[in-house]
Amino acid sequence: MTSQKVMLIALMLAACGCTYMELRAGGPHLGSPYPTRRVWAVLPMRNESGSQFADGLKMADRLAAEIDSIPNMDAIPVNRVLAALAAMKLREVSNTSQALGLMKALGVDGLVAGTITAYEPYDPPAMGLALELYADADVEKSDFANLSPLTTAATGETVDLKLEAWQLKQPVSRVSAHLAASEPAIRVELKNYAGGRGVEYGLQSDWRRYRINMNLFSDFAAHAMMGRLLHAEALRIAELKLTEKTPSP
User: Fold this and answer.
1) Per-residue model confidence (pLDDT) at position 29
2) Averaged pLDDT for residues 155-168
3) How would residue 162 be classed by pLDDT, with cut points 50, 70 and 90?
4) Which end of the chain is least crowded, N or C, by CB within 10 Å?
């Protein structure tokens, strides 16, 4: 990507208000990069951390709660996602066809899937997460094109369905990070998040509660990863708009 293109994308992000982080009372809050309201679903996270204490279902609940806190975005309850999986006779989503079929069954605009890659609950805590977003590649559309075969076919057939060009671009965004409180940059991020979320606003000890309590640190991890995912989406949308505005040679 050329420096000129990077500059144009930065200008478009500023012009369209594609901010994913807002500083308000009570610490940083996430913002939506989309022009219209979006409804997402979150799959239970796969646990590949090697720790039996990492709970993928609870992490999905935390991510869903984070989405619900974003203006102009909503998340359906994770229990509804589990019920839809059971109705489709799936234990998990393992390919693009199943992901898009589940999105259609739930009537959502996006599906977040992911993995817990590390889980260290002792002070200083650390958590590794990798997230993927399945969504309509065209952000201006409010519905999904040509998805009916995914829901009318038998569940076993969805694996072998021929995907169209836009469907092959799934997932549309991927992010991953190892969030270790021992790292200076993550510690600053944790302090910013924890500030104002304690008993007294601005109390310096607030962030230490999030460092020594793994449940609170997991809340921070959900917030941090959702921020990264929305930032990736903001960049993708800006690139799409830049491509539309750039005349063909």
Assistant:
1) 77
2) 49
3) low
4) C
Whole-number pLDDT of residue 238: 86
Pair of tokens at residue 34: 């989309």
Q: Which two tokens stand for residue 58?
A: 């609870």
To which residue do tokens 């609950």 refer?
A: 121
The more confidently predicted of residues 81 and 151 is 81
Distance separating alpha carbons of residues 218 and 225, to the nearest angstrom: 10
Residue 172, SS3 per DSSP:
coil
Q: Distances from the Cα of 138 to the Cαs of 10, 36, 132, in angstroms?
A: 20, 12, 17
User: Which domains are delineated in the chain?
Assistant: 7-244 (3.40.50.10610)
Strand partners, 46: 115
The contacts of residue 54 (CB under 8 Å, 6+ apart) are 47, 116, 119
| Structure tokens that stand for 207 in this block | 């962030």
End-to-end CA distance of the chain: 17
Whole-angstrom distance, CA of residue 241 vs CA of residue 238: 5
User: What whole-number percentage of the chain has pLDDT above 90?
Assistant: 55
Residues forming beta bridges with residue 174, ordered by sequence position: 132
Residue 47: CB atoms within 10 Å: 18
Give the pair of three-digit tokens for residue 245. Answer: 């505005």
Given a contact cutoff of 8 angstroms between Cβ atoms, the answer to whether 222 and 63 are in contact is yes
Residue 200: other Cβ atoms inside 10 A: 8
Within a 10 A sphere around the Cβ of 93, how many other Cβ atoms?
A: 23
